Amino acid sequence: MSREPIQISQEQIDRFQEDGFLVVENLIDADLVKRLGDRLDPLFHGNFETGIYPDEWHWRPGLSLPDVTREICNAWKSDLAIASVALSVEIGRLAATLAGWSGARIGQDSVWVKPPGAKEVSLHQDATYISYIEPTEMITCWIALDDTSADIGTIEYVPGSHKWGSVTELGEFHAPTSHYRSAMERAAAAVGVSNPQVVPIEISAGSCVIHHGKIWHGSGKNYRSDRVRRSLGVHTLSSEARFQPTGAGYIYGRYKRVGETTMDENFFPILWTRDGYRTAFLSDYCEDAIAASRTPSVVGALL
User: Fold this and answer.
1) For residue 303, what pLDDT is reported?
2) pTM, entire model
3) Number of CB atoms found within 10 A of residue 140's CB
4) Does the N terminus or the C terminus of the chain have fewer Cβ atoms within 10 A?
């Protein structure tokens, strides 16, 4: 059964623009949380339901260190449960509404697992990693698949840091050798911010936080010996986004047509537009699982 669309007020849009992130409680229900969570271990062990490999696969059993945060990118191509959320019309509509776009398409998803003792992920800006896209804008919906707290290495933000401008140089990401907040602190100092505030997001499983592509964010170490932190991030672009003529890199450059800048909807499908357009194959590819979830509530940034 379909549910009413999530309503976001102008006040909440203004808060998002000020802080750079917005919490949405109970985006998906407990049954869907469990369904997604149950798919993560098979994914990291190479069990791909569709037979298609994801675009990035960071951590493999027997090959990778046990104390690093695990990540798979574009699991929607490999697993239909992940796809049913990552390709949801609601995520596209929420992202476009907060960004002020006429529509939204998926850039990529990221499946995350931070096991007990897992190391940090450096604070970074998502926009740094999409310099090959025009416009260089991204909105991310980060969905918690476990109850989060600071001691398990939840996602954390520096409120207002999306106003500092963009960093173009790629730095350390997984399990950094320097302090995981170092790059952010250098960026803060460059704009005269001497004591940047870092806010850990503590939300229940099934809730999410939506963030701006230029906000500084990352996660600390999981200090718990008895708890894992799992999540699904959906990174969206404007429906009008295009490739830059050059520079797409060895992963996403494979999807750029020779001599063109169009982003092929087979690989970057459009989730929602104001005029009702949505990439045609999505309705046959997977269900839209969020349409069956209970009605969520939207709250402001956790400050």
Assistant:
1) 44
2) 0.94
3) 25
4) N
